[in-house]
Fold this protein.
Amino acid sequence: MAGVGMDTKIYPSEKYDRVRFSSDQGGAGPSAMNLKERKIQQDRFYEVQSALTLEEARYSEMRKKIPGLGRIPKDRINTQSQDSEFQKRKQEHVVFVKQNFRQIECSKFVPDPKKLGVKKIRDLKCHCGEILTEHAGLSSAQPMNNVQRDIVEAYLIPEKLRSHINRETLFKAPPENLASLLHSVPWSKEDAFRENICTTFGKISFVNNDNSKPAKYVRLSHNDSVDRCLELMEKHWKIMEPKRPSLCISVIGGAKSFKLDNKMRETFNTGLIKAAKTTNAWLITTGSNVGVMKAVGNAVSEGQSFLWDDDRITHTLRLIGIGPWGYVKDRKYLESDGDGCFPVHFKTSNIIQHGKPVPLNPNHTHFVFVDDGYRNNYKGASEFRASFEQKVSKPTEAGGLGIPVVLVILEGGTDAISDAMVSLNHHIPVVVCSGTGRAADILAYAYSHTRSKHHDSKTPRNRKGELKPKHEDKLIEKIFDAYGERWKEKEIEENIRLHLTNVKKCMEHRDLINIFPMNKHEDLDIAILTALLNSKAGETSDEIRQNQLKLALTWDRADIAQEEIFREDVLWPTGSLDDVLMEAIMEERVEFVALILTQNVVMKEFLTTQKLQELYDKSLSRMDSHHLKKLMRRTINSEEFSYDNLARLMESLMDKYDHNFDESSIVDTGPGKKFSPVLTNAQQHFKFPFKQLMIWSILMLRQKMAMFAWQMGNEPVTSAVAASRIYGSMAEHIHRNESALKEKVLTYKDEFEHLARSVLDECHIKHQEKAMMLAERKSPSWSSMTSLQIAASAGNRAYLSSVSCKNSIDTSWNRGIQSSPSKVLVTVFLPFLLFTPFLEVNAMGEKKAKTFQKILTFYTAPITKFTHHSILYIFFVALFTYFLLVDYQFYEITTIEIVCIVWIFTFIVDELYTLLTFPSPTFHGKIRDWYGMLKCVDMLNLLLALVAFLVRIIDMEKHAEEAKIIFSINCIIFYIRIMKLYTANSSLGPKLEMIKMMFDELRMFLLVVIVFLLAYGVASQSLLFRQRDASWDILRDIVFYPYWQLYGELDFENAVHTDQDCFESLGNFSSSSMTRMAYNVAKMKCKKEYWLVYILCAGYLIMGNILLFNLLIAIFNHIFTKVEEKSNEIWKFQMYFLTMEFDNKTALVPPLSIIPHLYLFFKWIARKTCCKKRSKGVQFTQRHLEFLQLFEKEEMANYLRHKKSEQKDSAESKLQKRVEELFKLVEEELTADQGGSSFNHTLIATQTTKLPRETTFESCPLEPNGWPKTEAVIEFAKKLEEKEQKEVIEEEVAEALMDEEQAKKEKKKKKKKKHKKHKKETQEEEKINNMDVQNNAKPESEAQKNIPDNAWASPLPPTTTRNLSPRLASQESPYKSPYLQRRLTPLKLQNDSSEDSDDVEDNAQVKTPEPYNILSTPRRSRSKLPASDSDSDVPRKSRKKKSLTRVESSTEDERRSKSKFFKRFRSRQLSDTD
């Protein structure tokens, strides 16, 4: 069979080779053919299969396994041309390269006199830098005979040198007179270099990097056109696809001596890849595997990924190597025979040899090798690279690509300074990564010490930098330190002058230079963006501002755009921001959209029908629109956008939709006829543009943009509910295999549902009535649907269970009745109570409710209708039960039967009327929302009852039994229908939902049970009956007995035991008339007990009763818990449908409802025929709607403000504040330890003085922004505090031992001093008392009462604890640091008297607040110590020792301060009175 084989290999043996095709794998073909024809056909099949798409190739394996089909469809073989599409593109590529590019080879070998110091002639290098054997003609991989070699040598070697240099003398030493011979042999590049057709191009497949896609390469002359090179890259390399780059980043720097530490490498890699991915940028290096080029390649390898577009694979990061051809190691393997290499397998290396070519970096995606004829020289491509970058950066009007270019310098030699000067002369901004060494640090130093010199023009472009004279010597020293070791003594002065001049020329474009310190944890991508913006800062062209804005948009930096671009002095012309706004919407840059809308851009004027069409067309062409295409295909069977298709799609998602075109663009063509030019008028506007933007965002799953459009649009509550409805409908159309996408959509749905409920609750808090109006309002922007209708169709239980929705539903349920349901029930049975105040009815705007109004309000209220319906339905069920049990006659139709059938008919009419009037916008929506499974069963039951009655009328005697069976089934459904009345109860209503969910799970459970039941039933019956005739009894026994045994009805006598009656009926064989065989067969048909059946029964009961039933109980328990948690939401959701049902029912319920139904039917016919319907009134006019909208928008803003404030006050924000405080604490402590060292604003100072924070947290993990992580900072602070506490404790213990020895000596001195002080205090007190007696002053106790309590202890100022963490400040450990204790202890008022001078001197160093001034008593100035004695200048150990003495003296101060202060105050008071 064709395509069917017995190959069982998992991995094919031919991984890279061509697959061998047979005739049965490629369709039809002759079974026998010669080898040549078979080879041609195999190549043909291979080419055809290579042209298949991935999807077609996937099905080839399936086709092979189907008989009659081969791997390749026959039509593809017959219709495929000889040259496939790939071969055509390849041929065009080859022709283009050969026509436009050249390669240079040296055709004259003359050794360089400066390089004669070699041992053998074969090592002599030509002026071009290459040895003889590597010249063109001799370096070919093809073997050559001596004659051919002699001919090539005669062409390459001049005649004067041919006798000394030939193939026979290659391994000999150079002759001594070679130097003199070379003077007579001239060499010039004009004579020696020959341009040939390019043969070096194709693809490089790096053997070292199997996971990479082959890199494209080409070799060209340095004189070739840059335009042709860009054309090659764009048309043949497809480097512009799938998206045009917004930036080109050229990286230059050090090569063999370049190194980056871990932190700098991480900063560089992260910033570079972020910038490249954000802008889809090109990265340009020289392509070698050394230094900066290798660092860029490693960074790209970390962030590289692929874009899959059908059969084409493209890199997300494109790294272009533009380097010299003569400096590429093993370059001869890249040459081809003329048609290129597709691909060439190339092996790179990490080994770098000084003075020799370097290998290629395998992470580059494209290579452009520039050939200037010289070999082993790395300077051959700089001019071409500069021209390439200039061409890329030129505007499109000037023939360029209009792509901004930025030059990034890391470290680098003297050529880096020269390249920077060239780029700056062409106004290309430069980012210098300072801290990396050599050229970068030199430029950074020059930049930091250069001042701007103003010339004639005031624009920044004409401001040239001038190096300060005092720093020029330092700059010369830096240049010498970086490069002087490699220069000869004669060249030092000249080279320094040259490079100093180049640096000064660079500083003339100081505004284009941006310094990025690599030792800081900042973002390199932001530095690149800043460089681009600063390069155009002084220009006011609209195009330049547009380009700047697009760059800021690409980086998503709205803050920079607001500060640098959208300045107050800039006037943007009308329509100039439309393209940027469109791009911001497409890329979901919400902040940019909001920023642009503040620049006098009106969304209603911007979003026209043409713009919306463009928005959808661009979206459908993107890779992230597959879900929308599938949705359109499943709903409207089309993937193309049109306004008709959009309307059909939205109607399938929301049931009702309107574009809401602006009425000003609708043309009135006559009475009753209006024409809306949707497709012809491209400038037609929308009445609600943010609604259209939100719908587009929802369909594209742009949640942030949808949130923004919701916030800016009208009717936030209804719009949020509508968004939730659209998301819910989209989730229903998503296939179950796409679980991740479905979960994402449902998450967005829940977010909008939560928004709708939150805003409505906010409105309810402000004003309950207005909140209910918002829920009941028919939305003008959403096709006159209410939020309740949309939420009900979407199943938004959370929204319907909100307070405002519940109040609205309750208001509709009661319809003006303000009494309790119990009073309503009483009034139903006693209607005369309506004429009494027993039942309260709302006047509904009237001054007083009249009796007639009260009666109509009562009987038209849904609660009254429900009560009447419940009472009459219960009566009907009782009547039908009586009819079925007692009154049913087989031979006649009774009166009760006729009454029941008429009643059933009125039920049918009432159900149809309720369906047609249910508040869903479409008939399909009515069926979906109202007629569920139970409603369908109910309607089928009613129709079945009518059918049974009709059959009974046709043939009463024959079908009376069948009719009664149908009536019995009807009775079951009628009783079950009573449960619908339980919906009005908050406890029973959720139980109905619980039963429904359990029933669904029960069906799944039965599928499991039936497996065990049949397995046991079949096995047991096969053992009990050794032989059995075919009969339906077998199926009954298989199912019947195992089923009842699950419930404990084992019935072993009938199910398992031997059937004795059967054996007795057969009797003995001797008395039987049957033959022996017939007797044995009949005996085998009798049931006989078997021992294995008992074992099977035991296992079956264990599985069924224990395992499965407990599983069912667990499932039911889960459902119960799940429903009970949301019982309130479920009941309110049920109440909405119940209220809407009875709100639309007539006042008379079945069977009396037939009367109003007939009236309404004839009224409908009259309106359709003769009487026209009057125009409907509206609930809210335009003025009311505007009022409600303002109220709704205000409360939405309040809710968003509250939410924002909650986020600020959240735990994370508090933790962030705490981290910042810890940073300040650590920084100040470290600053104090350094002894107030000054900071120099130079590059060196920047690298040294700004490192404390980094070195402090050197071992801490870092955030992407460079700051240490929160947990690490907190842990570090804890360790710091613990360390300080331990040090303090150790010092206190050591000093305590020393104090014990001195305590005895000082004790005696203190006693004497204390005695003197006590004696002096006694004398002073006696003097005061004598003065009091003489002046009749108040006693001391009374005067002391008038002094405030807080006068004795000044509160702690905030500044005293600013350097301490809250945990330290609140700690009450006895081992607290004395230094910290001093800063936390409230300072007491101190006495200025001479006796307390020692205490004052100790405490004067601590800054204290002004003490409480009692009765405006004068204060004395405190002594001030010199600045050198402050705590900040004293080392930490000495500060701790001083703090200990302060702690000791603080207790004594507290004890003496009150008494001494009062005495001093009292003496002053007495002196004033005198």
